[in-house]
Design brief:
alpha+beta, five-stranded mixed sheet, 6 helices
């Protein structure tokens, strides 16, 4: 018997749920109609649990677990929304805003930003942490696209879609902690990259205004992620 075909029974928000053994809590919750906020998750590419927005409570565990990379287990009891979770998710959002320079009023993604939307949904009207205001560059060397490190949340969607879907492996991460940055090739200007195919997939999946098409702003940003699932089906993938 295929282990992935095995069915697990669990409880999500007091609802009895059945899920395949290879599914994550996030997948099982969505199938059951339970909403869990995410930022780094993207249908069509692998999950890495980077943003921690999808943290959930699992009975018997003192730790909060990322739903996108935690597999379902038989008898598992999951809580997706609680006072504790709301507190942690709000704190994560505040840290993201404080780490870089997210000034919505002058951002090209204003009105079309997933970070902004999550902040609004969580009632975030102030940040209790001191802003770092790092001096980060904007790379406009590419003919069609730009990279603004001030808006990046290090979700690595661009890294994963470039590697897993396009197969170019142009994007990667450099540095540690608050000094981490996404880079093209060996940290060279995007416009000089010899591996970039200019497909624009990285721009399409960016949740903020970090990657954008030149001369496009706000709700006119041409960002659509439906192509990932379409490509997966056309290629015979099972994501």
């Amino acid at each position: 018997m295929n282990p992935a075909a095995e069915v697990k029974t669990l409880v999500i928000d007091e609802m009895d749920v059945s899920a395949r053994a290879d599914q994550t809590i996030l997948e099982a919750a969505r199938d059951a109609g339970a909403w869990i906020p995410t930022l780094c998750h993207l249908d069509g590419v692998g999950d890495i649990g980077a943003c921690r927005m999808c943290l959930v409570e699992v009975k018997g565990s003192n730790r909060l677990l990322p739903a996108c990379v935690t597999r379902v287990e038989e008898g598992m009891a999951v809580t997706t929304h609680s006072e504790r979770l709301v507190k942690y998710r709000r704190m994560i959002l505040e840290l993201l805003f404080a780490e870089r320079n997210h000034v919505c009023a002058v951002c090209v993604a204003n009105g079309a930003c997933e970070l902004q939307t999550l902040a609004q949904l969580h009632g975030l009207d102030h940040v209790q942490f001191p802003y770092r205001f790092p001096a980060l560059p904007v790379d406009g060397s590419h003919e069609r696209f730009s990279m603004d490190h001030n808006r990046c949340v290090l979700c690595t969607r661009c890294v994963r879609v470039c590697g897993e879907v396009e197969g170019a492996h142009t994007w990667d991460l450099m540095g540690r902690g608050v000094h981490s940055r996404v880079i093209t090739d060996l940290s060279q200007p995007w416009g000089t990259s010899e591996t970039c195919t200019s497909c624009g997939k990285c721009v399409q999946v960016c949740p903020t205004g970090a990657l954008f098409e030149k001369n496009k702003v706000g709700t006119k940003l041409p960002k659509s992620r439906d192509f990932l699932m379409h490509l997966s089906v056309m290629r015979g993938g099972d994501r």
